[in-house]
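Q: What changes when flavin mononucleotide is included in the input?
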Amino acid sequence: MPSDSDASGLLDRIWQALLLATVERRHAWRTPVLATVDNDGSPQARTVVLRHAEQSSATLHVYTDRRSPKVGQLITHPAGVLVFWCPTLSWQLRVRAVFSADDRSKTMQAAWRQVKGTRAEKDYLSAKAPGAPLPEAAALTASEPQLAVLIGRVESIDWLEIGREAHRRALFDHQGMQWLTP
Ligand SMILES: Cc1cc2nc3c(=O)[nH]c(=O)nc-3n(C[C@H](O)[C@H](O)[C@H](O)COP(=O)(O)O)c2cc1C
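A: The predicted holo structure follows.
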């Protein structure tokens, strides 16, 4: 059986990889899929960029347009899942988190300072909400940034390692760590 130090060592390595993914543009974990539930109870999923990962507070941040459908979905159903796959590590993560959308506080202001002046700036300056029909292919620009920070408080991490000989899987949650059948 794995010891407690194996378990916390693995969790530390997972968080280190998440942190690396926020700064390394080519890291496969930089672009996870965020799954949510819409108002009809149907699943929705889309690719996002992981912007911030902090183990001490167990939080992950994603930037978005505050008018995007996912924000409304997370207000109604705050539980979401971020799915990551990294072929280099051969690790999949399914991270269940409770999300809040922040479009006012210092966190959002700091996020906007990070994005302003970069190629991503225009993503938060669209005159229309994401998904709104456009008369032409080109989008109009808004005068005010529409950026919101989705703050995910991590509740559990389902880790799966795809090995040549064998796979390994573990669940980390409030109760600790449990090895699972892959
Ligand atoms: C590589 C890639 C990265 C993306 N990153 C983000 C992101 O960080 N935030 C975001 O809101 N949308 C991002 N998108 C667009 C979303 O996948 C999605 O199309 C858009 O946010 C609308 O989603 P919604 O209608 O479910 O709200 C990204 C798409 C791709 C392909």
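Observations recorded in class: The first helix runs from residue 4 to 23.
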